[in-house]
């Protein structure tokens, strides 16, 4: 008010800048307000929205020209609130502000964005499905290889007839001759028994009497 004359002392003014659609752009072209710490004396405050709230305050101006704050601010919605206050002492020229309506950018083909998002979603889904399939195949193959039992050949076992009491155990006769059954070759089990001579028989009998044979 009264620009470029001095603003009034003890002022407390509010303005709501509203556009029907889009957003509000505020430009501070000039400012000449009493300087003070934390803008305690005189100040111009800009709020995003149509009410005063510390969480929505985006600027606080309180500095003398030519060091006065200038700049451009863009609202998130369709309105800005400007609040100016002054104390009861000195006053200065004040401020000059310009505001305009900013239209939202509209896509020339609204379906393009949705189609692109759909195709992107399909591509990501296919990629994730293929990756999951490969991982599953790898896990199944890994466990099948771990669980498969190796083929172990059964060892060939040969039956060895006992030394005593066998069906073909050589038995000395009463007259000291060797039983003819001792000369039979046992190729059935892969062993060939050698006939005992009279001297070997005598050695075995002597060793047994001396405690060397069972």
TrEMBL record:
Region (Disordered): 158-214
CUB domain mapped to chain residues: 1-102
SMART domains named in the record: CUB (SM00042)
Keywords assigned by UniProt, alphabetized: Disulfide bond, Membrane, Repeat, Transmembrane, Transmembrane helix
Transmembrane segments: 118-143
The keyword Repeat belongs to this UniProt entry's keyword annotation: yes
Keyword Aminoacyl-tRNA synthetase in record: no
Domain of life of the native organism: Eukaryota
UniProt biased composition (Low complexity): 173-190
Alphabetized SUPFAM superfamilies for the sequence: Spermadhesin, CUB domain (SSF49854)
Protein name (database record): CUB domain-containing protein
């Amino acid at each position: 008010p009264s620009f470029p004359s001095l603003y009034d002392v003890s002022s407390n003014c509010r303005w709501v800048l509203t556009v029907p659609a889009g957003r509000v752009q505020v430009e501070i072209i000039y400012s000449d307000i009493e300087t003070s710490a934390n803008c305690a004396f005189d100040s111009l405050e800009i709020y995003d929205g149509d009410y005063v709230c510390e969480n929505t305050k985006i600027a606080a101006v309180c500095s003398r020209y030519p060091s006065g704050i200038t700049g451009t601010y863009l609202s998130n919605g369709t309105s800005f609130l400007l609040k100016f206050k002054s104390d009861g002492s000195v006053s200065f020229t004040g401020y000059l502000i310009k505001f305009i309506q900013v239209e939202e950018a509209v896509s020339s083909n609204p379906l393009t964005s949705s189609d692109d998002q759909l195709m992107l979603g399909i591509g990501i889904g296919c990629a994730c499905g293929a990756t999951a399939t490969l991982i599953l195949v790898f896990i199944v193959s890994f466990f099948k290889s771990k669980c498969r039992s190796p083929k172990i050949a059964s060892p060939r076992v040969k039956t060895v007839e006992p030394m005593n009491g066998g069906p073909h155990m050589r038995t000395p006769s009463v007259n000291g001759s060797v039983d003819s059954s001792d000369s039979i070759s046992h190729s059935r089990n892969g062993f060939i028994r050698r006939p005992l001579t009279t001297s070997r028989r005598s050695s075995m009998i002597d060793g047994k009497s001396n405690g060397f044979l069972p």
